[in-house]
Amino acid sequence: MEWILLLILGLAAAISGSIMGLGGGIIIVPALMILSNYSELFSGITPQVAVGTSLLIMIFTGLSSTLAYLKQKKVDVKSGLIFFAGSGPGALFGVWLNKDINVDVFLIAFGAFIIFVSFVLMIRKRIKPLKRSSKGIKRSYVNEYGKTVHYGYHPAVGITIAFVVGMFSGLFGIGGGSLMVPAMIILFAFPPHLAVATSMFLVFLSALISSVSHISLGNVDWYYAMALIPGAWIGGQLGAAINRKLTSDTVVILLRVFLIIIGIRLIYQGIMSL
Asked: Which parts pass through the membrane (predicted)?
């Protein structure tokens, strides 16, 4: 029964995370903590183990989703690597900041900001993206309506924004996709499907780096991980397949709903820690 429950959890987290480019950790971490409070079978799970195990699972969710999105030709690999050049160091900096700062008030403020971003996405079509310089990266993509969409950014700007996103990810323990996907859509005019697929590539790279430190610290429960991984792998593929059938507007609506959920969770976490 325990294995079946974890398999379903990994599957559900990976499907939702893959559809919206969030990775799935936003579901796995709180779910494991809730199970640890209400079931003796999960009594050994601490917050550190929940985060460490979740990051390990996101390697498989990210890889599975990325492979599926690569087949759909939706991953902007070059942009993903450029963004990772900023988000990787940013995440490490955020972890360092976390040691010396009282994050309670910041959690509440950041949760409110995440909710604000959700509402900004609602009016994204009225917002002009950042102006692309002649030396910047320019791309085009044919969307589901057969329309050619142009997007782009200057690498320095992309790396800087990715660094800030990575910093918040490391500081507050949330997936970088919750901010990077909206940033790509709003600031760089990425088509939503492309932003999600590229974000999953980032999730894969980030999880590879982050999970190493947690493994070295003993923050991974390998028994639970082995039960979660099959669902995460299958869910990553299913999420990418479902995403393919959704319109851009539907993807954004789902993303907005999850951002509100993430924001409420952060605010609640901050209030309970005061």
From this structure: 49-70, 77-97, 103-123, 156-179, 185-210, 222-242, 248-268
